[in-house]
Design a protein that fits this description.
477 residues, 6-stranded antiparallel beta sheet, 30% helix, 23 strands, 2 domains, Glutamine Phosphoribosylpyrophosphate, subunit 1, domain 1, 17 helices, Rossmann fold, alpha+beta
Length: 477
């Protein structure tokens, strides 16, 4: 969460995961900067605006962070600066910022000096009561250097000077509410913790050399040669030091992990809370075909996260799947452009239709529709390429509410499904037909744990912020 407010009319037409976190503790000294770099590179899809890492060898505690991709922030010079001899513990972070707040001092990890030594924190998600807690602490004389809620957690931990780091972290967890997953380090200890509902993901792995790894997704474990042990459980706090891995459940509630991890965010090779991302997307497509069938000649997925659902739709419907859209692998991150024309051209730079759609009735499968602008452009691309019909199918229900747990969606007025009927959205994007998977169908397709579906229903399992009038204007329009 960022406390700054700013207009949202130039945001991309997709939900945006704000962060990916990574941490490693090694029983023997080794090049943890390089391993952290590899882990962050594997998590790059979770945040492309800033990257950073902290490394400690028990004496020195070095932090490097900046705006940019992992490969841009950590060139040879910067990576060399964090390659501390004898390193035993390290954490890292990749980040998307909330609108208007991608300033360098909000990049993570955040660090602070305490009576427990220097602490570093990487945080994914939002503390929904951070503003209240922050205001109380300000009145008590606390100082804050940034505008993000991660610093509230660090301050809460730092003020518990009479208890050890694990107990102090547990005390802070009880004070803060919301959806979050964090990794925390001292000079010789690594901690990881997850909110009581398990909204944001966090997994534990181990390398053959005994090093423990914490990360937002298993793909980061595999990148550093670690095997997945298990997920951090909702409300669990784990601590790793030279005596091994220790665990305590601080507060556990009904698990409601974020449904968009499986719909869109997680890499297709990740398994979270026992549910495989790729297989769940295929099941979403199969369920979508059962619920919203239509006659057509070819099924096309919007790369990348729409591909699994398109394959599933094709399998269930018997309509062949084909690669009707080519995604330019060199397009990279599409940053905000000042004009609508420039933004539309960037869509064409990323995606171009293939001959598979020419003269065909196309079922186009995507993971979500937020504002509808990109969806309209993709429909137009297919028509320009000779598609005779375009039937749009979406593997998530309509997004009608903003997220308070770490996903940058939009002000509610900018969520097209909150202000338009499905038929009106169909007209807006220019499709011949439009249909979304049902919430029940999504739950069945994901299976496994319960899910957070707040952005579809407005039912927020981990609470909501107390909004002042300015916040309400930003969120609701």
């Amino acid at each position: 969460m960022i406390f700054d407010s700013a207009p949202t009319h130039h945001l991309p037409d997709k939900p945006r995961e704000e962060c990916g976190v990574f941490g490693i503790y090694s029983p023997a000294p080794q090049d943890l900067a390089w391993l952290t770099y590899l882990g962050l590179f594997a998590l790059q899809h979770r945040g492309q605006e800033a990257a950073g890492m902290c490394v400690s060898n028990g004496e020195k505690f070095h932090v490097e962070k900046d705006l940019g991709l992992v490969t841009q922030v950590f060139d040879e010079r910067r990576l060399a600066s964090v390659r501390l001899p004898g390193a035993r513990v390290s954490i890292g972070h990749v980040r998307y910022s909330t609108t208007g707040s991608n300033i360098r001092f909000n990049a993570q990890p955040l660090t602070t000096r305490t009576n427990k030594g220097i602490l570093g924190l990487s945080h994914n998600g939002n503390f929904v009561n951070a503003l209240e807690v922050r205001d109380e602490m300000l009145h008590e004389g606390a100082l804050f250097q940034t505008t993000n809620d991660s610093e509230v957690m660090l301050n809460l931990i730092a003020r518990e000077s009479h208890i050890d780091l694990m107990e102090a972290t547990a005390t802070a967890m009880k004070r803060l509410k919301g959806g979050y997953a964090c990794v925390l380090m001292s000079r010789d200890q690594l901690l990881g913790f997850r909110d009581p509902h398990g909204v944001r993901p966090l997994v534990i792995g181990q390398r053959d050399d005994g090093a423990y790894v914490l990360a937002s997704e298993p793909c980061a474990l595999y990148a550093v040669g670690a095997k997945l042990i298990r997920d951090v459980q909702p409300g669990e706090l784990v601590s790793i030091d030279d005596t091994g891995l220790h665990s305590m459940v601080v507060e556990s509630k009904t698990p409601t992990p974020c449904s968009f991890e499986w719909i869109y965010f997680a890499r297709s090779d990740s398994t979270l809370d026992g549910v495989d991302a790729h297989e769940s997307r295929i099941r979403m497509g199969e369920q979508l075909a059962r619920e919203k069938s239509i006659e057509a000649d070819v099924v096309v997925g919007v790369p990348d996260s729409g591909i699994g659902a398109a394959i599933g739709y094709a399998r269930e419907s018997g309509i062949p799947f084909d690669w009707g859209l080519y995604k330019n692998p060199y397009a990279g991150r599409t940053f905000i452009s000042p004009s609508q024309e420039a933004r539309e051209l960037k869509v064409k730079m990323k995606l171009s239709p293939t001959s598979a759609v020419r003269g065909k009735r196309v079922i186009l499968v995507d993971d979500s529709i937020v504002r509808g602008t990109t969806s309209r452009q993709i429909v137009n691309l297919l028509r320009e390429a000779g598609a005779t019909e375009v039937h749009f199918r979406v593997s998530s229900p309509p997004i009608t509410h903003p997220c308070f747990y770490g996903i940058d969606t939009a002000a509610r007025k900018e969520l097209v499904a909150s202000t338009h009927s499905i038929e009106e959205i169909r007209e807006l994007i220019g499709a011949d037909s439009l249909a979304f998977i049902s919430e029940r169908g999504l739950r069945e397709a994901i299976g496994g744990p319960g899910i957070c579906s707040a952005c579809f229903t407005g039912d927020y399992p981990a609470g909501t912020p107390l909004l002042n009038d300015v916040d309400k204007l930003v969120l609701e329009g």
